[in-house]
Amino acid sequence: MENLALIDSFSEFKDDKLIDRVTLMAILEDVFRNALKKKYGSDDNFDIIINPDKGDMEIWRNRVVVADGEVEDPNQEISLSEARKIEKDFEVGEDVSEEVKLIQLGRRAILALRQNLISKIHEHDNTNLYKQFKDIIGDIYTAEVHHVRPKAVILVDDEGNEIVLPKENQIPSDFFRKGDNVRGIIENVELKGNKPQIIMSRTSEKFLEKLFEQEIPEVADGLITVKKVVRIPGEKAKVAVDSYDDRIDPVGACVGMKGSRIHGIVRELGNENIDVINYTTNTQLYISRALSPAKVSSIKIDENTHRADVFLKLEEVSKAIGRGGHNIKLAGLLTGYELDVIREGSPAEDEDVELTEFSDEIDEWIIAEFAKIGLDTARSVLNQDVNDLVRRTDLEEETILEVMRILKEEFES
Q1: How confident is the prediction along the chain (413 residues), in pLDDT tens digits per residue?
Q2: Where in the numbering of this chain does the Transcription factor NusA first KH domain appear (predicted)?
């Protein structure tokens, strides 16, 4: 196989991998030098000339002419008689340059050259791919669903790069079909052997923060700062925002007229409920805002333990806790305080309390069992016979007695 033919066979890699010509030639030279080292022991005295315009190459070996019988290193030296077969007027001490044809390396060496080239090009691609995605960790990226697996969705971008969206990084309501475009952030790039694995996430707080940057011009321009984001993916999120310009209402700018600006973000996150609040260094005010939509009566803060007792009227308790306890949990994560709800006052004899207001003490599924038979307030449960409740619900007697104890304490306190 001639040099030109071998170069032609390599062109497919350049076309497939979109490697620039200079890089391809550098890889070619490196591969050929390795082959020369194996064949001759050293490549120091070889010149490799690659012509990228013509797509061909030449290999020249340089040796010093020595007297017949005095050759010690056949790779570095050539006898006078051998040199004169190349040019008749060579003399001892002169330099001889002789072209080396690939066929002289042997058939096995040529096959090894090709394999080595493939390996080097893949290594180059993987290194570039790793650097490329390492630089955009934390940025939003869009790719197309290639196929859906039980534990992950495999995506492919416009350049054919494979991206993995693990199940745990998907919003619970996410449902993907082949061909769908998916947005998320590049969470990490991991090396699996020599091949980089690109990991995407849609559950990261960073994804929501970047969506704010992408969808809200004032955030993108730096006029509004996203101070902190906390999420229960697909359920609820709280975002604290601030502005150094007193003329800008950061919450209003983020939400938009009738929620127009934030609507796209909510839709992207599977209708995740997003509370946007004004950030402040006033801890009491910050906690009060974080518990929105509940109206807080007062707050008692213990800085040593980072706990806060939050006093609320009875009708505000369920709002502060939220469905499944999400609101109070996120408020605690946002502010960095462990929040304890304290109910103010006690209901009069003729007053009643919704069972949902006890969701911090009674499991939601138990409250749901009572609701199935039309019991949705504390007094409606207390007025029932225990045995009758056991018969009408799927609850154990022990569970019902415990619920009644909690409800009675509310009215007795």
Answers
A1: 344 445 554 555 544 455 566 666 777 777 788 888 888 888 888 888 877 566 567 888 899 988 888 888 888 888 888 888 888 888 888 888 888 877 667 667 666 666 767 676 666 667 777 788 888 999 999 999 999 999 999 999 988 889 999 999 999 999 999 999 999 999 999 877 667 889 999 999 999 999 999 999 999 999 999 999 999 999 999 999 999 888 999 999 999 888 889 999 999 999 999 999 999 999 999 999 999 999 999 999 999 999 999 998 888 888 888 888 899 999 999 999 999 888 876 544 456 788 888 888 888 889 888 888 777 888 888 888 888 888 888 889 999 999 999 888 877 76
A2: 202-279
Amino acid at 297: S
Tokens, residue 152: 């992950």
Q: Which residue has the tokens 């974080």?
A: 290
